[in-house]
């Protein structure tokens, strides 16, 4: 994944911030051929800033409900 507006080298120094940012990027803007880690998705679920419709859909896939 290529992102020109974020200093990814600096962001990688904070593992939690990096994981949240990467999950948000993958979900909101495309996976780029990668898979999302279910473990990380569940860990950071309440902290992710996602498109509401995508979050509802993912919630349905993860738990079978909204």
Summarize the structure.
It is built from four helices and no strands.
Elements, N to C (H/E): HHHH
Q: Alpha-carbon distance between the termini?
A: 29 Å
Structural class: mainly alpha
Regarding quaternary structure, how should these chains be classified?
single chain
What's the helical proportion of residues? 55-70%
Number of domains: 1
- Give the overall average pLDDT: 88
Report the major sheet. none
Count of DSSP strands? 0
Fold and architecture overview:
It is a single chain. The chain has helices spanning 8-11, 15-29, 38-44, 52-63. It has 66 residues and is an all-alpha fold. It has one domain. It is globular and about 35 Å long.
Keywords:
single chain; 66 residues; mainly alpha
Task: Write the SSE topology.
Elements: H1 8-11, H2 15-29, H3 38-44, H4 52-63
């Amino acid at each position: 994944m290529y992102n020109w507006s974020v200093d990814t080298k600096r962001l990688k120094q904070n593992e939690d911030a990096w994981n949240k940012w990467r999950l948000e990027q993958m979900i909101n803007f495309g996976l780029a051929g990668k898979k999302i880690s279910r473990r990380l998705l569940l860990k950071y679920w309440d902290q992710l800033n996602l498109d509401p419709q995508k979050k509802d859909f993912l919630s349905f896939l993860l738990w079978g409900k909204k």
